[in-house]
Each structure stands twice: as C-alpha cells, then as structure tokens.
Design goal:
It is a single chain. By secondary structure, the chain is α/β, with parallel strands linked by helices. The protein folds into 3 domains: 3-101, Rossmann fold, CATH 3.40.50.20; 131-192, Dna Ligase, domain 1, CATH 3.30.1490; 200-355, D-amino Acid Aminotransferase, Chain A, domain 1 (2-Layer Sandwich), CATH 3.30.470. The protein is built from 14 helices and 15 strands. It has helices at 12-23, 58-71, 82-89, 92-95, 106-113, 115-125, 141-144, 171-184, 241-253, 286-292, 296-306, 324-334, 362-369, 377-384, and strands at residues 3-6, 27-32, 47-50, 76-78, 132-133, 152-155, 166-168, 189-192, 200-207, 213-224, 232-238, 258-266, 273-279, 320-322, 351-352. The protein has a 7-stranded mixed β-sheet, sandwiched between helices. A 4-stranded parallel β-sheet has the order 3-2-1-4, covered by helices on one side. The protein is globular. The N and C termini lie far apart (43 Å).
Length: 386
C-alpha cells in the first residue's frame, strides 16, 4: 500500500490532497500543530499526528519529523504550506534518506516567492506586469508620491493571500499606509491597481526534474475575499494558452521542479494579462483542478516514485468549485451586490472545497479551528493580521 505523510492539515488544499490519495487506497498520515485542523477530521486520514509548530518552533518540528520518518516507512513527504515546505527542503540532506521529497530547492523557492525579485526579472525580460515601484529606503517615499498612478496597492515582498496588502487612493495617505505595512513586512513593493473588468487567472503547473511540464491547469477567479482582492472563493476551469505559455516559460527558465502556481490579471486598458506573482507551493484552489481532471497530488506522488510521468494537459472546462465556509459566505456578506451575483450564492449545484456527503466531518474540523482564535497567537496572526 502506498504511504504518504501530508503536513499542514489546517487547509482546504491539504484536505483535497488527503481525499485524492485516500480514495485511491493510499495510507495517508496527516499532521498539524493543532488537533483542530480540517484534514485531520477526514475519513481518508489513516493516522493523525500533532507536531510542534514549524513556524514557532522549527528545531523541535524537525526533530519530531525526523523521528516520525525513522519510525514509519513513508514513500513521499508532502508539506502543503510554504513555511513548512522551505523548512523541510532546507534540511533535505537530513530528511531525504527516509523518503522522497519532490519539491524544489529552498533558495529558488524563496527567490520566486519574492515579489520584488520577480517583478525586476519580469520587467527586464519584457513580460507584462503592473507598474511597479521597488523601495529600499524610506527616504524615497515623499518624493515618490508625485510619481504614483493612484490608486495603488502596497504588497509585502513575501506573503500570501491578502495578508499585509493595503489599497491607497490618495497621495496624502500613501506614506502613512506604507510605513504601517513596512513595520510588519519590510520594504513592501508598490504597484498600480489594475482596473476592474479583466479576468483574474491562476496557472497551476507540475514540472519534472528536467523542468519539463508534466501537468498544467488554468482557472479564472469568479469571487474573492476580501471582495477587493484576496484568496479566491469561487473559481472555474478555463483554457488560456497565452498565460499558460508565459507561466511555463518562467518556470523552465528558472529550472523549477515540482508544483507551482502563477497568478495573472488581464488589464482591461490593453487586454494584456499582467503577471502578479508566483506561489512556489500547492495552492488554495487545488480541489478545482482535481475535480476538472488534473490530480496534482497523485501526479506528484507518481513523479516522485517513478522518476517521470506522461504529460497531463487535458481537463474539463467550465467546472466550478468554491470555498463556502467561510470564504464565499464572507464574500456574500460584504458584497453590496450580493443578490445579483452570477452564479448566485445559493446555487447548491456548485461543488465545494470542504462540503462532502462521502466525507462530512472536515466541516466540524473547520468550525473547531475557529476556537483556537480565542487563545492561540499563531492562529490570530494567521487569520486576523491584515
């Protein structure tokens, strides 16, 4: 029986991986630093593990992980979050003797995750990006105000989702807002805000050890939370060869291996898809790709075990999937046009990341995880820091 250890059990993407492999008959051990984690409640979870926080206690976590890998024979180790992934790949020599770790090196992952580095590279190579301003001295701020094409968005160089992002509509507010973000995320970048009206898209890829594409999938965001920009709460599978080609070109150039997710937004002023960021890890909308026919967790397992696989590029288009608890629910509450959304919030034909009659208990895990907000600082920072 294939045996996989999946870490970061809090997240919907982790649940997607657990269900994918569990339904195929895998022995799936799942870990997280709290018992109140979504994937730990899944019927497909063969073993539930609680470990020291990789973020707060990295040395203790690595000791725990090495001990677990020594005692139990796993074929493949799958960290689902960037912090856990990079901590593990930084210790590849220590851990890879026990199982396969099919993820790119830590240094490359950090480079591609850094928005300042990525925007500099993309600008030099002629890729379409939003107007971007990279700051390395707070003394630049006052003089920069006159140059900025307001409204602008302030983005941490290293973050995900909506954490740390600030929108600024007026020049008189810019310096104050920038310094607020800078206190938490040193020297964020500044970008023009691309106007509404263009599609926001994600390209999901799997590359082999020779940086050849072995799976690809494209989707568009239909709703997000926060409403103005954040993780997608409703998405649909599409075909867009132009953005797929750009994403593949970038990752091949950097000799990437493993999974990655690249975000674009079409600028309605010129119709060009603008590169926004690379997430060198598994992505939140993983269940949509699986539903459409590209089973990235299983393909990554096969790639790790077999050395290579045949490319998987065909999938169903028009497939929709959402994150209703709490993402799409919060979008519905905060969107002033909530009763005019298409598709509507109450359309129960749309598949969900979490809800499943065959595997109902992760809903309890998701609701229980909210309890940790009352007492755990890591959870408070994770969900409440904005």
């Amino acid at each position: 029986m294939p045996r996989v250890l999946i870490l970061d059990g809090m997240w919907n993407k982790t649940l997607a991986a657990v269900r994918s492999l569990g339904r195929r008959g895998f022995y799936v051990a799942v870990g997280e630093w709290t018992r109140f984690a979504t994937a730990l409640f899944s019927n497909y979870c063969s073993k539930r593990l609680i470990y020291p926080s990789p973020k707060e206690r990295p040395a203790k976590f690595l000791d725990w992980l090495e001990d677990e890998l020594k005692k139990n024979k796993y074929d493949v180790l799958m960290p689902m979050e960037f912090t856990t992934q990079t901590l593990i790949t930084s210790q590849r020599e220590r851990l890879s003797k026990y199982c396969r770790i099919p993820f790119a090196g830590v240094d490359l992952a950090f480079r591609l995750h850094n928005k300042a580095f990525l925007m500099k590279y993309a600008r030099e190579k002629g890729f379409d990006i939003p107007k971007t301003y990279i700051i390395d001295d707070l003394g630049q701020l006052t003089g920069l105000v006159a140059e900025l094409p307001f409204p602008v968005v302030i983005k941490p160089q290293m973050s995900s989702g909506a954490r740390g992002i600030r929108y600024v509509n007026r020049g008189e507010d810019f310096v104050k807002q920038y310094k607020k973000v800078h206190k938490q995320y040193e020297f964020p970048i500044v970008q023009e805000l691309i106007p509404d009206g263009g599609e926001a898209m994600g390209v999901c890829l799997l590359l082999n050890n020779d940086s050849e594409v072995r799976a690809s999938f494209v989707y568009k965001r239909l709703r997000e939370y926060p409403v103005r920009g954040g993780p997608s709460t409703l998405r649909a599978s599409i075909k867009r060869d132009d953005v797929r080609y750009i994403a593949e070109s970038l990752l091949r150039y950097f000799k990437w291996t493993g999974v990655a997710h690249i975000e674009f937004k079409v600028d309605p002023r010129d119709g060009a898809p603008k590169l926004l960021e690379i997430n060198p890890r598994f992505w939140g909308s993983l269940q949509l790709a699986i539903n459409a026919g590209v089973d990235f967790p299983y393909l990554l397992y096969r790639l790790a075990m077999d050395g290579d696989i045949d490319p998987v590029t065909e999938y169903k288009t028009g497939v929709m999937c959402r994150w209703i608890i709490p993402g799409d629910l919060l979008h519905f509450i905060m969107n002033p046009n909530r009763f005019h959304m298409r598709p509507g919030f109450f359309d129960m034909t749309i598949k969900d990341d979490l809800l499943s009659l065959r595997d109902p208990m992760p809903v309890i895990g998701r609701l229980a995880s909210a309890l940790t907000l009352l007492y755990n600082k890591e959870m408070q920072n994770l969900f409440l820091r904005r």
